[in-house]
Amino acid sequence: MSKLFRSTGFVAGLMLLAVSIFAHSPAQAASAEKTNIVMTVGEMCGGCVTKITKRFDGVAGVAKVQCSIEKKSVTLIPKKDVRLSPKGVWEIMESIGKTPKKMVTPTGTFTSKPNA
């Protein structure tokens, strides 16, 4: 075991891990948020969360779906290097009966269905 701790590769690996953990800055987090789509809806319950999550889980390009019952919001986090279509997202929400009241995207803020 002591040979493992003295190993240059092990120490280098630990240093790399530490750098990767501490290098994640608030600026990087803000950059990632600029690709997200955040929508507010009129009502949100546990059933809504299930329905929304299930529907967007099958959409190519969506990495994660976060719903907040308290904020009545849905946040879509796209996969790396993917821009989700505001119009497409809006139409998916309409198809499950959850028309957004407001949708904030990297390309703008919408209170009605986007054209593109």
Automatic annotation (TrEMBL):
Note the PROSITE patterns from the entry.
Answer: HMA_2
Keywords from UniProt, A to Z, are:
Signal
InterPro entries, alphabetically?
Answer: HMA_dom, HMA_dom_sf
Record Pfam families: HMA
Q: Which residues form the signal peptide?
A: 1-29
Domain HMA per the UniProt entry, residue ranges: 34-101
Record flagged with keyword Signal: yes
Protein name per UniProt: Heavy-metal-associated domain-containing protein
